[in-house]
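Help needed: design a sequence for this.
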């Protein structure tokens, strides 16, 4: 459990039938659907581009693998050690990137992701940066390797 997510929990569970004691984050149905059933989870064998990024403020981490064919992202997988917001938004990042050219995928913004999941609580907005940063670094890794191969 991350430091951030442990702060979201009340110190002890509420008594049955009473309202929860601590602050509650409300996630919409799209976020919950992507958190409980994240898309494109896993790893690719011999990916064309890969990246692992972390958020030093909360310790969450994200790994992204991409498969690129004729400059199109034909497959993408992610694994996350992150909060519900990070998992849901990273799942959406993979959905947005799949089928796009590397140039188009590099232009996906944090706002695109937040809009695509129908919004996210203000204090969790930074979580969507993790998936975006991992995607961008995986694409840059691919572009570096492609350049090195000439
Ligand atoms: S709290 Fe770390 S990414 Fe969400």
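Sure. Designed sequence:
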């Amino acid at each position: 459990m991350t430091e951030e997510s442990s702060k979201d929990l009340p110190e002890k569970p509420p008594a049955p039938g009473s309202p929860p004691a601590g602050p509650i984050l409300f996630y919409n149905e799209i976020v919950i659907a992507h958190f409980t059933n994240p898309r494109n989870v896993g790893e690719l064998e011999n990916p064309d581009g890969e990246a692992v990024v972390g958020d030093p403020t909360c310790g969450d981490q994200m790994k992204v693998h991409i498969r690129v064919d004729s400059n199109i992202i034909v497959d993408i997988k992610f694994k996350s050690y992150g909060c519900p917001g990070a998992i849901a938004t990273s799942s959406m990042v993979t959905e947005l990137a799949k089928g796009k050219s590397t140039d188009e995928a590099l232009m996906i913004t944090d706002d695109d992701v937040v809009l695509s999941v129908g919004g996210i609580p203000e204090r969790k907005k930074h979580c969507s940066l993790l998936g975006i940063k991992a995607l961008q670094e995986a694409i840059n890794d691919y572009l570096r390797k492609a350049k090195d191969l000439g």
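The longest helix spans residues 127-148.
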